[in-house]
Description:
Layout: H1 9-12, E1 18-30, E2 34-41, E3 44-51, H2 57-62, E4 71-80, E5 88-99, H3 117-122, H4 124-127, H5 131-154, E6 157-158, E7 164-165, E8 177-180, E9 183-187, H6 192-202, E10 204-212, E11 225-234, H7 238-259, H8 261-266, E12 275-280, H9 281-290, H10 302-311, E13 315-320, E14 322-323, E15 333-337, E16 343-345, E17 347-352, E18 355-362, H11 367-376, H12 385-389, E19 398-404, H13 405-413
Amino acid sequence: MEINKRTYIKEAFSKKGEVELYGWVHDTRDLSKVRFIVLRDITGRIQIVGIKGETNEKIFELMNEIPRESVVRIKGTLKDSKQAPGGKELNPLEIEVISKSEHPLPIDVSDHSKTELPKRLDYRFLDLHRERTQAIFKINNTLLQAYREFMEKEGAIECIFPSIIGTSSEGGTEVYPVQYFEKKALLSQSCQLYKQMLACSMEKVFAVFTVWRAEKHNTTRHLNESRQYDFEMAFADDKIVMDVLARCVQHMIKRVLEKNPKELEMYEVKLKVPEIKYLAFHEVADIMKKEKIHVGKDDLSPEAERKLGELYPDTIVFVHDWPLSGKPFYIMPSDKKGPNKEPLANGFDAIYKGMEISSGGQRIHLPELLIERFKAKKMKVENFKDYIDSFRYGAPFHAGWGMGVERITMLILGLPNIREAVLFPRDRDRLTP
């Protein structure tokens, strides 16, 4: 069996003699007696140079006929060149057109594409030819791997949770119903209830989980299908898991700085490992009052989040001691009271670069208190019988959080629209490609 002798372009710059390259025709130039092809693969670009009278005549003619974005195999001899990008170029001995690209291209795939995002998403498979688009997902890949790396060192176990569920996991009505044989089911809004069950037996668990939310919004920061980094830990309160989240994000960003300097430079991002700041909800409310920015009685407005990003740049701001009324049914009530004697919760939000990246807190592990909270939220207790019963047989106190995969990628790169941070986004209007 013959093994493919392909050389990646990045490897070619450290080699001598003949190499065989595969990739896409990124650009071509014809100077009559000299012809150039810029070949691109996932590792970089290299210049192919054909010279009339020196290069094989058929190859020289072919160099002028191959459309951009065609897929080719080129075998040739490497040559040092001070004028060539990277200091080397390739003199072609063989060129095979594996797949000829149709023209005109439906979108601009240059490094500085002028095509608007909706049309780029219509042709996402072609938009992914762009180095700038690939850079987003190289950084996303680094974040995913760093998250798993961190969790493994923390002693957490990666788990896979169901996406089809029998009742709403967060009690809201904005869910996607599906027909499940003879029954009605839902696409999961969260793995919240399942990761709690796992933490109550396996102590530390994590997941990368897809969530579906049927809100009819059309914002630049929300999706109807998104992914979350999820974590849950037994024998922990909100303070302990805030510390885990802080160290996790710091580790993930350190890895991006180490592995993706080229991609950060492409987006002109001056990324720093974030500092950590802790503020009680009432302290944030006081700050916003001075800044003349509205804050609800139990929630932060997008304007308030943006202001925190301005006041505390390159910082993860943990907003804790949240009003109980602003947190889901499963968040543990606090022993503390707010400035106006209002009940507080052992829950938090994490704000980074002017936007919420995570929400979490200590969970309720006491069945009777859970039932009480369901009733307070006007939710049907019978719909959550299995969930409640899971805490009747030795459940430790526990806490956790979820963090948006696409959102943190968006914020790190300063992308104006979260859809750019999704390979194939799903929103109210988009089901294809």
